[in-house]
Give the backbone structure.
Amino acid sequence: MKTLLHICCAPCANQCVDVLRTDGFDVAGFWYNPNIHPFTEYRSRRNTLREYAAAVELPLIEKNDYGLRPFVRAVAEDIENRCVKCYEMRLFEAARQAKALGFDSFTSSLFISPYQNHQLMRETAERAALENGVEFLYRDFRPYFKAGQEYAREQGFYMQKYCGCVFSEEERYLKANKILR
C-alpha cells in the first residue's frame, strides 16, 4: 500500500518512516508547512528533512510554500484556537496530494508528538480523507517519540524548540521569561 506521510520535521518523521516501512507500507514524504515561521526556521526544518530523506532514500514531495500571510490570515480571528486551522491547512493538503498523486492513503508525522492535540488532528484528518476520497491511515506514533528525538540528536539534526508558528514561539519565550509578563 502506497502512503503519503505529511512531515513536519525530520526529528518527528524518522520513527514514523521506520514504523510504516516495517509494517510493509511504501512510504513517500510530503513537506507542506505554511505555519512554520520565521523563514529561517522554515528553511532549517525543510533542509534537515531533505538531508534525512536523501539518506534513507525516502521519496520527498515538496509543496514549498512559505505561507506567513495566508497562515496569519487563517488564524488571526482566533489565535487561541489556531491549531485547528493549522491542522486543517496541512492535513487537507496532504489528503489532496495523496488523492491527486495516486496514493492509497495518507498520514502525518504530527501523530508522534505528545504536545499536539491528537484527537483534534485525528478528527481533522478523517474529515480531509472523507472530503478528498482517500484513506486516512491512522497511527498513534507517540510511543516512538523519545526514540525519534534520540535518533535526531545522534544524527545531528536541527532540533526546533517550538511547534512552528510564530504564536507558539511567543508562548515558549513567555514561559521561559515569566518576568516579562
